Amino acid sequence: MSLTKEKMIDLYATMKKIRLFEEKVSELFAEGKLPGFVHLYAGEEAIGVGVCAHLTDRDYITSTHRGHGHCIAKGVEINSMMAEVYGKATGACKGKGGSMHIADVDKGMLGANGIVGAGGPLACGSGLMAKTLGTDQVTVCFFGDGAAEQGTMHEAMNLACCWNLPVVFVCENNGYAESTPWGYHCAAKSIADRAAAYDMPGITVDGTDFFAVYEAAEEAIGRARRGDGPSLMECRGFRYYGHFEGDAMLYVTEEEKKRNRARDPIENAKKRAIERGLVSAAQLAEVDAQAAAIIEEAVKFAEESSWPKPEELLTDVYVSYP
Amino acid sequence: MATRTITFRDAVNEAMRLEMRRDPTVILFGEDVAGGATLPHMEGENKEAWGGVLGVTKGLASEFGRNRVLDTPISESAFIGAAVGAASTGLRPVAELMFVDFMGVCFDQIFNQGAKLRYMFGGKAQVPMVVRTMIGAGFRAAAQHSECLYSIFAHIPGIKSVVPSTPYDAKGLLSSAIRDNDPVMFFEHKLLYDVEGEVPEDNYTIPLGVADVKREGKDATIVTLGRMVHLALEAADTLANDGVDVEVIDLRSISPMDGDAILASVKKTHRLVVVDEDYPRCSVATDVIALVADQAFDYLDAPCKMITAPHTPVPFSPALEDVYIPSADTIVSTVKSQVE
Question: Which residues are bridge partners to A167 per DSSP?
């Protein structure tokens, strides 16, 4: 494994920023400060961060409606994210996209997406770009267990394999498609097993185990980067919050919630990183404080930012107007 | 610029060929666009194989190789979505949706992804892709291979839509579409592929959103597009023999649409007939009439008329399909009823 001390601190900090970002968004939403609706990533941090650890700004990801974690893991600027969630002019998308469409193409983040399963075909496209131009860029397609049942994902996995594209499919199986348990919505016993249908490697990983995700992603992304084709990773985990904020999660038992709390991916990573001697508790405490300050600053930035001007309504529909 | 007579099919092919020569980021993919071309056993006259289901992309795979001319699985969602992804990351893909009727299996990728990325991302992305697709009745292909449907695309902000009528326009408009930085739907009527016309050998472009006056006249305006342009011109010849001087405006693009050209013509002739092969409801035809009703009502000497397909699926039987498609005779009688 390629984890250095510096990298471990950096990745831990990223997970922590995601957690605190989501906790803050939940709080702001409950206070009625945020328009629309939000889907929070807390609980799944080890997946986004463990995977994106192997990507650079030149690599691409496609994301989902639960995209805040992917954005932060891919390096999208947090102030611009918070401002976007508020709908402010300084947002990553000038307030035109909101929580479900945060994007930063320059950072290789091809957008959170409001349509379940839409990212697969897009990922084939950026993969095709890299193959056509002969670059070593890799695209990671994040999708949920719900999206695993969309035809688009099957089409995309097949196409990526037919064309041998540098795409890694990462299924974040958090156990529920909205409120429907995956044991009900998925006819297979394992989503990773579906890789066999497209003749690519498939692996099931504990998505709460940062190190397991990190290692599996290193392998899959390395394979794609070498031109050896796509892989499918199924990362099993959970989300702490509902499908969207306001969802009381009545479909999850109290026992299950308690079990999940005991498997917290960030606490787990912290404990093991310390045990391995990669970092010290004091160093991580410092990181925690920095992360909290970054999120507070983002809220301040967003609240002090201006609303988009009315004339912004009509711009950015086309590149060139007649 | 040297010109010669070629078919609409060859004009479309030539636009792609020349754009692929001038820009290595232009790639082409779709079902059977190579269609077996360059496979080792394809020899002699069969070497180019299908080159598209109606031969429009023939010869491109052998010139540009199978890395730039890619057959796809029958997975329209995957490859139309891949066009969006490729376009937003640096290529200029031309994707072929064999028949527009197949939009039903991939529309999300067009209207929710391709059309909206730029706006949703606050202008920080662009999607320079073209989707070429076949439209139109008259091929005895029945309800799922014969529609026009372009009006649906004109309804969606963020996409441009082009409906050429002649080989000259097809080549120049397709070159523009490929160079354009927005997603463009390019609608090719299958009964136009064998139509011939004068086309320059070199590369040229025709701006999107600019209509073309195919025939000047003073008594009535026919606004039309695609294959219907030819029927309108035929009707105009008949009407001329009866002393009625008709102006025929070919929209060429329906999004953006050249409202100025429509209004200028109607203000001159004071009568409007729209001829459109698409379904009649919420369509290009109703859109043109709404524009004129809104902005040139006082200039009208007769009610606006629209001649369209009926509000029915496209029938199979030749006896029914021939009645389904608007005819030159109907155009003649409609214009006459307006000027009398």
Answer: A139
Domain boundaries, chain B: 3-200, 212-339
Domain B212-339 class, CATH top level = alpha beta
Contact A55, A44 (CB under 8 A): no
Count of A-B CB contacts under 8 Å: 167
Name the residue of chain B whose CA is nearest to A91's CA: B122
DSSP H or E segment with residue B5:
strand B3-7
Whole-prediction pTM value? 0.96
Is residue B326 within 8 A of residue B310, CB to CB? The reply is: no
A56 Cα to chain B: minimum distance (Å) = 15
Using omega within 30 degrees of 0 as the cis cutoff, is the peptide bond preceding B256 cis? Answer: yes
Domain regions of chain A by residue span: 5-314
Helices (H), B23-130: 60-64, 76-87, 107, 117-120
* A contacts of B75 (beta carbons < 8 Å): 155, 158-159
Type of residue found at A40: L
The CATH classification of domain B3-200, taken from the options 3.60.130.10, 3.40.50.300, 3.40.50.970, 3.40.50.620: 3.40.50.970
Could B182 and A128 be called an inter-chain contact, meaning their C-beta atoms sit closer than 8 Å?
A: no
> For residues A68 and A104, is the Cβ–Cβ distance under 8 A?
no
Task: Please list every residue in chain B whose beta carbon sits closer than 8 Å to the beta carbon of residue A120.
Answer: 78, 81
Conformation bin of residue A81: beta by default, left when phi > 0, alpha when psi is -120 to 50: alpha
User: Is B181 buried (19+), middle (13-18) or exposed (0-12) by CB count in 10 A?
Assistant: middle
Q: Which helix (H) or strand (E) holds A159?
A: helix A151-162
Of the listed B145, B189, B230, B270, which one is catalytic?
B145
Quote the minimal CA–CA distance from A200 to chain B in Å: 17
Same fold yes or no, B3-200 and B212-339: yes
Residue of B nearest to A101 (CA): B120
B85:A106 CB<8 A = no
User: Was domain A5-314 assigned CATH 3.40.50.970?
Assistant: yes
Whether residue B86 and residue A123 make contact (CB cut-off 8 A), yes or no, is no
Q: Please indicate whether residue B145 is annotated as part of the active site.
A: yes
CB–CB of A229/A161 below 8 Å? yes
Shortest distance, CA A265 to any CA of chain B (angstroms): 31
- pLDDT (tens place) for every residue of chain B, 340 residues total: 899 999 999 999 999 999 999 999 999 999 999 987 767 676 666 677 788 888 899 999 989 999 999 999 999 999 999 999 999 999 999 999 999 999 999 999 999 999 999 999 999 999 999 999 999 999 999 999 999 999 999 999 999 999 999 999 999 999 999 999 999 999 999 999 999 999 999 999 999 999 999 999 999 999 999 999 999 999 999 999 999 999 999 999 999 999 999 999 999 999 999 999 999 999 999 999 999 999 999 999 999 999 999 999 999 999 999 999 999 999 999 999 999 8
ipTM of predicted assembly, 2 dp: 0.96
Specify the amino acid at residue A138: V
